[in-house]
Amino acid sequence: MSFxxxxxxxxxxxxxxxxxxxxxxxxxxxxxSPTVGAEVGGVDLTKEVSDAQFVEIRRALxxxxxxxxxxxxxxxxxxKRFARRFGKSLHRHELAATRFRHEGSFDPEFxxxxxxxxxxxxxxxxxxxxVSCDPSPIAVSLLRVTRTPPLGGDTAFANMYLAYEFLxxxxxxxxxxxxxxxxxxxxxTAGYGAKPDPGKxxxxxxxPVVVTHPRTGRKFLYVNASFTSHIVQLTRRESDALLQLLFxxxxxxxxxxxxxxxxxxxxxxWDNWASQHHxxxxxxxxxxxxxxxxxxxxxxxxxxxxxxxxxE
Length: 312
Known about the structure:
The structure is a single chain. By secondary structure, this protein is α+β, with helices and mostly antiparallel strands. The chain contains eight helices and 16 strands. Strands 1, 2, 3, 4, 5, 6, 14 and 16 form an eight-stranded mixed beta sheet that branches. GO terms for molecular function: dioxygenase activity. This is TauD/TfdA family dioxygenase.
């Protein structure tokens, strides 16, 4: 690694951690790493969370991008009730009724899966945000692993704010103003072997390569190996080269990453725009079952906020 790049990364981490984090009054927050992830305590998700607590939970998510609540023996109704605090509309996944479903009654607002020794793949085995192919991608996801392997099965996270900041200034300037196609068929047909219903296609959307977060006003890198097919303004050869550089950049920067270890009765919540995650499949032939509820807000990824938004 060059001196410049190494020094640039250090400055970015220092800036990330130097932001003033006010103490919490109603919850406890313990960071899992300096750059992403935290455990949140002092909350009972079987009950309605107070407005004061939720304000601090929302801030903990903004500051850490992925937060995990332990010892939460919640019901499906509890899961959905807490999800709706982040936004009223719950996502319905294209594959919920077909590829990702196991025993039990079907609820289209849950994405459920089961990985065992007969599985060809496991959901989320690769760096990605969820359904970035949608015009308004999932804003927040909330995941329970309902059957954990005795060892392994972590979920890894990467900080996309820092992924952008770690880039050199010339690369940042190159990316500014570019857009990319995010294609559902890339992940679901090529990745999982799923095909859309006759006469239908999977979602495909064009999003900025660098997005400004509507809550924090910070820039983050918004391309991923699972859904992003190409950069619109470049030739295919140029696009492939640049995207591969960015994909390897996210995968190879351990300083961007942290792993969440699963325990029974844990609920994991993440910012699905400014982070990527990876379900680590290292527990074969053991089983891992899970169910996710996700929130959509109707917002679309934009390179810059309107002046009225930036002033808020």
